Amino acid sequence: MNDQENISIDEQLIRQAKDNRSLFAYVYDRYYKQIFVYFLRRTGRYESAEDLTQDTFFQAFKFLDKFQYRQIKYISYLLTIAHNLLINFYKKSGRIIDIEDMSIFCDSNYIINYENLCDKIDFKIRIEKIWLLSKKLSNRERKVFLFKYKKDMSTKEIAMSMNKSVNSVKLLLCRGRKKIRAGAI
What we know:
The protein is 76% helix and 0% strand. With 185 residues, the chain is mainly alpha-helical. It has two domains: 1-106, Rna Polymerase Sigma Factor, Chain: A (Orthogonal Bundle); 123-185, Arc Repressor Mutant, subunit A (Orthogonal Bundle), CATH 1.10.10. It starts with a helix and ends with a helix.
């Protein structure tokens, strides 16, 4: 997809979002990874990157009506907001911006690294959603999930530690997975 096609998609998304604010979710979905990676590479902290990403989209949403389209990609506008938030973040924290962080776009391996990082982020986001959904499981199901997926215990080891049969543990895992799948719509 070339820049002109991106611009027309951007422009269409923004126009629709201005008419129906709930459609801004599509803008969010389209650019979340890029903004998140921008912050993650510059702060080195997952939580900070998440917070700053949310702040970026909040600011973009807040000023959506004032945004005027000027034939540039919307990601450029979002990165401008992100850059300003990053500067404020560093000012408040007293940290100094490392010049190495700013040279990321000069790296010839950036695209490969970016795609790998996006895959890792997607995986991490899915895992975090699963753990959030697992909080809705019964105590026994959650305990089995913890043993199986966090402590990497075998079904037999879980059964012994919980004083249950292997089949009982398998049943708890199966029920838990079904509940999580049903909640992960």
